[in-house]
Structures are given as structure tokens and as C-alpha cells.
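dumping the sequnces here before i forget
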Amino acid sequence: MTATEVEQEELGTTKSVYLMTFKPRLLDWQATGVFALKNLRIAIRYPANFLIWGILPLLWYAPYILMMIAIAGPGTSQHFTELSGFQDFVTFSIIAVFVYQYVDKSVWSVGNNFRWEQFSGTLEPLFVTPVPRISILVGAAFSDTLQCTFSACVLLVISSALFGVTYAITMVAPIVIMLTMMVFALYGFSFLIAGLILVFKDPSVLTELISNITYVLSPITYPLQALPSAARFAAILVPSTIAIVTIRELAITGLFAPASFIQASVLMLGLIIGFWTVGILAFRWGENWTKERGSMGGF
Amino acid sequence: MAYDESESFRRMWTRKGIRSEIRAAWAISINIWKVELSYPLSVLWFVVMPFLWFIPMLITGSAVAGGSQSVVLNDLAGTLDWVTYIAIGTSIIGLTISLMWGTGFSLRREQNSGTLETLMTTPMGKPTLVWGSMLHNLQHGGLGVILQLAAATMFFGVTLNVWGILPALGIIALTIIGLQGLAFAITCIVLLAKQGWMIVEFITSGLLLVAPMAYPIAVLPPILQYVSQASPLTWSTEAFRGFLMNGLAYQGVVQAVIALVILDIIFFAFGALMFKYTERFVRRKGALEQF
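..and the predicted 3d for all of it:
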């Protein structure tokens, strides 16, 4: 701190250099880092949560697998093989459940991030800081991606052991690339949800609705071909669909087809650009709408 | 006139009997409806919820069955019609979740609204608070069951045996007693742990996993089959579906009713006792309004 700043502080009129030279930016990476670290610090205070979120989804998805076994017998059915091109529906479903964890996290955690801040009483102070709101959301998203990766890996390991399924470990690199692209597309998706939640407030119902609709559209326990044609087009717009289809192909067959991978990557890039644009615009609209009505801190 | 000598005050303190408790429970139930209906999105969710839960199961089943009949299910559960089997079985999911979460968290909801202590000082019985919430969730979840079954009949070719409707309602009545015992136990967890949602999630998801809603318990690992038999939800799902599929010709009725009555007595007695002592303990500690 300079002598002038000390003097000003004593007079109670400190002027921050940051504030004096502040120019609005689209993203403030320093703020993103600070926010991600803050969220991670809070998460680490509850280490059991990492394990619980690796086990709990199993209780939600196991009924689907058990139902498939009850209808078609253990492991496979002729119709399923004809429809999906895969033999074993258990192997088919578990890898998709792993990928879908990121979608769930983006809807429930990042999308609801400002709602949790509101419950903690820190939303309004956060909104008066000279930091782009998107930086805060990206920070929360980074922290949630790290937590989700740990829990999803726990889930994958436990599920694979319980149901006796294996995947091609040699395909880790392209899977990570596709997963990273999906996560970036999901960030845009979660900005959109964050904007909607700022407007509608009641997060439980809206989040449940979005979460259930994305679940129905995602080809987790069934192939994309099982959906009606109109729903199939809508499914392509859910960022996880392309990722689930590509990652499943890689993990189960262990074969890397460059042409289809590049095609999937280009589609995913389109989704990233589309979702970030729509997400940021929707969030800004939600923020302005809420501010104009003075309902930012309202429940 | 001093307040404590007023007519309404005297009437309030001399009230007693089951009728006044029912009136209080009814008032609580209506109050929750009013709160829920003031959120338009909640109404929308209430209407689409049964479909959003059932549709992924239907698509998943279609993807592996390739038609409306399953020979494997016939060997396991004695019916070829998997769509009807799953539609009726899963229609109870909403009611169960509504009873477990809605009723189990009723006191927490009042606490969050700042009205728990006020309600606790009224002269109604403390369990009436939970019963009132149960009454609401029974209506809420019950309407969901009707909605899902009606949609399944109209859109997915599900057939219900009309002679089985009344006995199926009787089974629901028996189910509620056992589930109310569980709801009392969940209320205790919430009263003690405050943010006990994770424990409640494990209990509810675990119960739904071992219940034969979308599959017979024969597909569960042996240890889970034992757990399943000790759950009232297992017997009620089997009997509810049995009546709605086979009408009065349902053969497992005696076994299901006896099992349900025994489990109801155990679960309800355990839950009610737990609630009685936990509520007293929390009040003695002065922790009723603690978050």
C-alpha cells in the first residue's frame, strides 16, 4: 500500500487502484480463480460428500438396469442389439451414467449457484463487486467440474465392479477431449439456467423440470434411435448427447475412428459457441430483469 | 376483558378429541395447498412429473423388449404385459416420495418459514402437525397416481381391471400407515440433524430400489431380496398392482395383507415412539428453532 493510500485509508476514503482503473470486461480470470478456490475450500470441508455423490446416483440408475434385466434377461436382447449396435445394455448404460453426472452437476450446482449465494446472504454483496458475473459462474463451474470428476470416477469404478463391466482404457485421451468439450458446452447451458433461476427464484421445481427433460432426451439407458424423431432432434441440442454417443463408442469398442471423432468435435464446438452465446445473453437478461424489479435478494 | 378470559381463548383450550385434531390436520393440509398453488411452476411440475418419471422407463423398456410383451418378465412375475406391469408399479413412486419427503420435512419447512415455534405452542397434538402434512401429501401424491394411471391408460395402452380399484385403494390405506411410521422416523432425523436430507435421500432411494415397482424382486441380489421383504412398500406395490391387473382374482392378497398389517404395526409403533421422544428431547434442549 502506498503512503497516499495509507493516508486516504486513515481518512476513510481509500480508493482502490483496481477500482480507479477498472474497465468492464467479459471475463476476469483472477476473480474466476478466487471464486473456484473459495467453492473448493467449502467443498473440502465436507469430504464425505465426494464419496456420497459417487454412490447416491447408483441408487437412482440401478432401477433402470434392473428393469432392463427383468424385461430382456441378463445383459442383452436381440432388439436392443439391432437398435443400438451394442451387445450388452449394462455396459452401454453405465458409461453414459458416468458422462451424465456432469450434466446433472451443471444443472443442480452451477445453474443454482446464485441461489445458494442468496441463501447464504452473500448474493447482493457479490453483485455489487466490480467483477463480471460470468467470471463468478465460471469459477463455480470449474470447482464443480473438479468435484464432479472425482465423484463420477468413484461412481464408474463402483458400478463397473458391481455389474462386472469393463471399458477400453486405451481410449482415455479422446474420451477426455470429448468430455472437456462437453463440459465447456455445459457451462453455457448452466449460465442459461442461472439466468432463469434469478428470474423464477423457486429453484427446486425449475431445476427438476430441466433436469428431468434433459434426462429423457439423453441416450443413457436407451440408444438415440429409441426416441421419437422429433425428440431425437431436440436431443442433439442437449450438450451431453453427442458426448455420450461418442464416448460410449470409444469406451466400449476401443476403436478410434478419426472421421467420426472430428465430426463429433465440430458439432460439439458449434454447441459450445451456441450455448455460451445463448447462456450469456439469457443470464444478462435475467440479471437486468431482476435488478430492474429490485428482486435480486427476494425469495 | 382480559384475553385469557375471552370466549375464543376458552374454546381453544377446552378443545379435545379426535375431531378437533382432524380439523387442525385438515387446516394444515389446505395451508400447504395454498402455498404450493401460489407458485405457477409448481403446478406445472405437478402435472408433468408423473410423465417425466414414467417416459424414460417406457423408452428403456421398449429399447430392450422390442414390443409390448416380455417372455422373461412372464417367467419372473407371471405377466407378459411389461408396460402395464411397470405403469402400475411406478405410479406409486410419486406418492411414496411425496409422503417421505413432504411429510418428513414438514417441520423443517415450518422452521424455515419461522412458524414452527408458533405452531408448537398451539394446543393441538404435536403429531397432528405431521399428520396434517401427510394428509396434504396423500392428496398431492394420490392425484399424481390417478394422473399417471389415466395417462398410461389413454396413451400407452395400459388396461386396468375396474374390479380391483376399490381393493387397491384399501391397499393404499394400509401402505400409508407403514409409510407414516417411516415419515415420523424421517421427521426425527430432520429434527436432530436439521440438514438430514442426505440420510433421507439414502432411505428413500434405497426403499424405491428394493421395491418391485419396475421389476420383480427376483432380479435383486439375494441380500437385497431380504431387505425388500421387510419393507411395507414391497407388499403394497405387489398387492396394488395385483388388484389393478387381475381384479378380485389376485391370488397373493392374503399374504400381502398379513405382511402389510404386521409391517404397519412395527413401522408405525417404532416411528410414533421415536417422534414422541425426539420431539421432547429437542424441546428440552431448546433446539427447536436452531438451524
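The interface with chain A takes residues 39, 41-42, 44-45, 48-49, 52-53, 55-57, 59-67, 70, 72-73, 76-77, 82, 86, 198, 201-202, 205-206, 208-209, 213-216, 218-220 of chain B (CB under 8 Å).
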